[in-house]
User: Fold these one by one.
Assistant:
Number 1:
Amino acid sequence: MQASRPFRTAIVPAAGLGTRFLPTTKTVPKELLPVIDTPGIEMVAAEAAEAGASRLLIVTSPGKDAVAAHFAPQPELEATLAARGKDALAAKVRRAAELIEAGTVTQDEPKGLGHAVGCAGDALGPDEDAVAVLLPDDIVLAAPGEPSVLSRMAAVRERLGGSVLCAFDVPREQISAYGVFDVDDTVDSGDPDVKRIRGMVEKPPADQAPSTLATAGRYLLDRQIFDALKRISPGSGGELQLTDAVALLIAEGHPVHVVVHRGGRHDLGNPGSYLRAFVDFALAHPDYGPALREWLTDRLTFPDEPVRGA
Ligand code: G1P
């Protein structure tokens, strides 16, 4: 995908307090919590880079400098590891800085996702017509052998123009937690998983949701979004919603499509779903997976036995 690069900046909103992970998030930003040994934000940065991004613009809040620091080189640590012959660990230390150039913009007040994304508008170069937004809570898993969903979205923007979002089909009883798409089935995009959108609504009651297709943290937005973000009013939860700015663009005739992602997804945003993500990645890990599988099977088979840690 590196040959065609319809965007080069990926915005990652990371200004939240991470209250669901207190007390850890008193000092450790939620975005740095590990999945096995790698912070969620590094996984998201890798996805952005694979889809063609060369710059990660982290929207941060005062006191969360550690998020951007993760992407700075650590030559002394690397040298120490190299001197000890620990080249694989040194490569892990280097990876984040090598993946992508990271910068920050500050969101001083928590006024919602739309406000956070809007804070990044002035940091774009004059020639940047589109920008990606990746929510770091959402880990969107490409199907085996497939490009990431963001890469597929980039290809759709090149073909059809406008803005392209990622959609997941979720059970109707869970739909009120999401931005929900109103799909226009009358337009043939030439791909059954690429659909034209005629509206979007943030966190509707389940019985009023226009579909069960929800947005899940991946957006490829035309630069016009920054103008739309200046023209919306507070919406769901009293916050400025990115969904409402996309809906405004659609109402004004701007083309918006979704790529329906049929692969997996993890939510790192709350402890329950974070645990599932951790276990899932651990089970697939060549070093830790086999022993964990055995331990879990044993634990589930004999739940009343004392825990054996080893
Ligand atoms: C945000 C967005 C929502 C989206 C969701 C999951 O909501 O506002 O449209 O569906 O992320 O990616 P949040 O989970 O921050 O409340």
Note: Residues 283 and 289 are 4 Å apart (CA to CA).
Number 2:
Amino acid sequence: MKIGIGSDHGGYELKESIKEYLNQLGVEFVDYGTNSLESVDYPDFGKKVADAVLEKQVDRGILICGTGIGISITANRIQGIRCALCTDTFSARMSREHNNANILALGGRVVGVGLALDIVKTFLDTEFEGGRHERRINKIDEITC
Ligand code: RB5
């Protein structure tokens, strides 16, 4: 599995920790920035990773900003993206089993590194259950207004 990862300055440090963890796990990734703590605008990075997921450059995405809120709102504006902002592993598991989330969002100023890495691992390891959940996801994609 190949992961696309991106953040603003508020998520930069957590992004670097997650990259280290992905290396340890042997998970391939592409880093779409940002590359420092210098202030940037989270929509720019949310869109880059969302586009990479939709264009199948990567299989799933991970987005981080200070709270995870702005960058997840951005990603969810894009048709076909199901971005789940998670602060616990139960939500991360459900976001895959029930929602087939294709992007995980995290708040770099909200969750500690240890919890964030557990959330990432859960997101990576959990498969979509399909069945009735497929029908519900299709209904999300039918909403265009
Ligand atoms: C940047 O200061 C901060 O607003 C951003 O990282 C994020 O938390 C927005 O939702």
Note: The pocket of D-ribose is lined by residues 8, 10, 42, 65-67, 69-70 (CB under 6 Å).
Number 3:
Amino acid sequence: MTPPATTRFAPSPTGFLHLGHVVSGLYSRIMAGEGGRFLIRIEDIDTTRCTPELTAALREDLEWLGLSSDEPVRRQSRHLPEYQVVLKTLRERGLLYPCFCTRREIAEAATQTAPDGSLVYPGMCRHGPVHAGREPGWRLDMARALEVLQGVPGWHEIGHGRVAGKANAFGDIVLARRDTGVSYHLCVTHDDALEGVTTVTRGRDLYEATSVQRVLQDLMGWPEPTYAHHALILDSEGHKLSKRDGAEGVRVLRQGGWRARQVREHPLVRQALEASLPTGAYSGG
Ligand code: GLU
């Protein structure tokens, strides 16, 4: 038996619902346990990639699947001013600095890769702007943040115990993108705290992101959730199932005559869930 928790499934509607989402949604619901709370959140801050049509389609497919939120679904794009308050707080504490570099300039100057595969910012704007005049993004001064926290925060991963964080290997991450004014790490940690999420469930592809998110939680004095990262559905070559792989789209299966229960019990879904949950916790969708 899983003890009651508040979990959330937080898809970004950049494409149609696919079997990878089904795994994440079911995993999150099962991890909430009997008497727990399961929440759905739409992470649609990137308004160029997350269209209203894709959001509507995602919600419709979730409903068809029988995955419903225990509380009203939160849509991040409707709460942008709340994230600006967090940025203001961090800025006033001297933990952020404006960065005017383009993606290309960073790519040309970067020499290191962070644990999540992103490039470590080489620090051109850390001691003052190099290309002022452009619209800036805002970066976290990671060395300073870790000094304030007096160490690198780790986390509790269900089934593995305490895990050491690697925030120092990420460098100065972007907290406010130049185009959207916010970022994934900022919004996700704010919302997990606001919604009282006690167990963050998501795919192993976001495992490394936890190091960065733990820093933000500690800086803001938000509670530390526990984490549970589930196995991913991999294609025959061992790559993560991508939204572009049409055959695994829930819509495609649905149009092909599949029932919701059959999709929830799809062999690829079953395999990923059985690899991730305690024995016996998955007994079909
Ligand atoms: N919105 C993110 C995604 O779809 C997931 C966020 C999370 O679970 O932390 O990849």
Note: The chain has two domains: 1-72+231-285, 80-194+205-223.
Number 4:
Amino acid sequence: MRRFDIIVGDITRSDAEAIVNAANTTLLGGSGVDGAIHAAAGPELLAECRTLGGCETGQAKLTKGYRLPAKYVLHTPGPIWRGGERGEAAALASCYRACLTLARGHGIETVDFPSISTGVYGYPMAQAATVALRAIMDFLSENDLPRQVRMVCHTPQAAEVYRQTWNLWYAEEKDDRL
Ligand code: ADP
């Protein structure tokens, strides 16, 4: 079984045990994938988020999934793109690692990620893909859990960028590294 895959889809319909929400630091909902996840999960999700006291950029917090097919939501505020020299890459890598570490700690076997920060936060897709894939692949090579991770891209164009980036850095490694 492949431990990592890139697919096109709507993450609110994902059948993974946990989905990741590209949240903001209030954790009280927003636009884009955040709004879609709250709409699909129902008001109980916002109620639980209100108890969490927000979350720092690059960190992650876990809630239940409520009306989502996913059992859990891992909420992580990505960095806002400010030109690339304000620590954006380190913060974005931290988002992926924080979610995967939290998932591992809860024994979660499957995690689906959206392309964090590449919507209203303005992170260029190809640069975000490089950071995301490195963080995920490094984590998987060092940990048995989560068993499987997927990037769920909202458009075929985004998936193509992620696939090309994966091919650039990881095509030679095949699945035996995983
Ligand atoms: P951010 O504030 O972190 O930039 P956005 O939600 O604006 O978050 O965008 C992050 C990414 O999520 C974008 O690439 C956007 O196309 C994608 N996205 C939006 N809705 C969905 C969805 N339902 N499923 C998966 N990805 C989505």
Note: The two ends are 10 Å apart (CA to CA).
